């Protein structure tokens, strides 16, 4: 399923990117995310797309970015915009990072494109990749299940664990919940998690 999603984003990269540049509902969550990250800190963006608007927000505030995306067109856009940072065309399910390499990790509108069991595995790896005191920001569905969205009129897969299941994965991964909001009305109805490495 993620391979098909990458193909969808590849084919609709420029339209998706244009829409993202016009909308930034997650800004307040990003402001909260960076509160404990030192200036110049290392941030990993899993499913970075073309880097707009999230990575521009972070680059403008002095952070060093590594972005991962499976769609070549998306990575190309990010490289063109932010050539001093690191952009890798890769599958986040297979990406290998050094232990305790990052001050912050974002998986905004990306983690929930994975099947539930793969989300569990990736969250456990996020716990390994974060430095102690580091933070991770991602979104999910409001409860366990699968939903089908759309991009340019084509079906787009989403999956979610239940809040209790996410919390159990955090506990196994050395992560602690900092903030959680179900269908946040100030963030376009997104369900958001902010967690920290303990």
TrEMBL record:
<dbReference type="Pfam" id="PF13649">
    <property type="entry name" value="Methyltransf_25"/>
</dbReference>
<dbReference type="InterPro" id="IPR029063">
    <property type="entry name" value="SAM-dependent_MTases_sf"/>
</dbReference>
<dbReference type="GO" id="GO:0008168">
    <property type="term" value="F:methyltransferase activity"/>
</dbReference>
<dbReference type="InterPro" id="IPR041698">
    <property type="entry name" value="Methyltransf_25"/>
</dbReference>
<dbReference type="GO" id="GO:0032259">
    <property type="term" value="P:methylation"/>
</dbReference>
<protein>
    <submittedName>
        <fullName>Class I SAM-dependent methyltransferase</fullName>
    </submittedName>
</protein>
<feature type="domain" description="Methyltransferase">
    <location>
        <begin position="43"/>
        <end position="134"/>
    </location>
</feature>
<keyword id="KW-0489">Methyltransferase</keyword>
<keyword id="KW-0808">Transferase</keyword>
């Amino acid at each position: 399923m993620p391979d098909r999603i990458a193909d969808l984003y590849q084919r609709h990269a420029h339209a998706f990117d244009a829409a993202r540049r016009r909308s930034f509902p997650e800004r307040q969550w990003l402001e909260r995310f960076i509160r404990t990250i030192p200036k110049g800190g290392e941030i990993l963006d899993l499913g970075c797309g073309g880097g707009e608007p999230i990575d521009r927000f972070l680059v403008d505030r002095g952070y060093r970015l590594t972005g991962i995306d499976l769609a070549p067109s998306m990575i190309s856009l990010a490289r063109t915009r932010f050539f001093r940072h690191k952009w890798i065309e890769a599958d986040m399910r297979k990406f290998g990072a050094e232990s305790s390499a990052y001050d912050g990790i974002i998986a905004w509108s990306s983690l929930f494109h994975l099947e539930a069991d793969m989300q569990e595995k990736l969250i456990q790896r996020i716990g390994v990749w974060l430095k102690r005191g580091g933070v991770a920001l991602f979104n999910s569905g409001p409860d366990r299940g699968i939903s089908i969205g759309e991009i340019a009129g084509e079906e787009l897969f989403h999956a979610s664990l239940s809040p209790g299941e996410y919390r159990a994965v955090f506990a196994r991964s050395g992560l602690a919940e900092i903030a959680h909001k179900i269908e946040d009305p100030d963030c376009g109805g997104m369900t958001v998690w902010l967690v920290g490495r303990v």
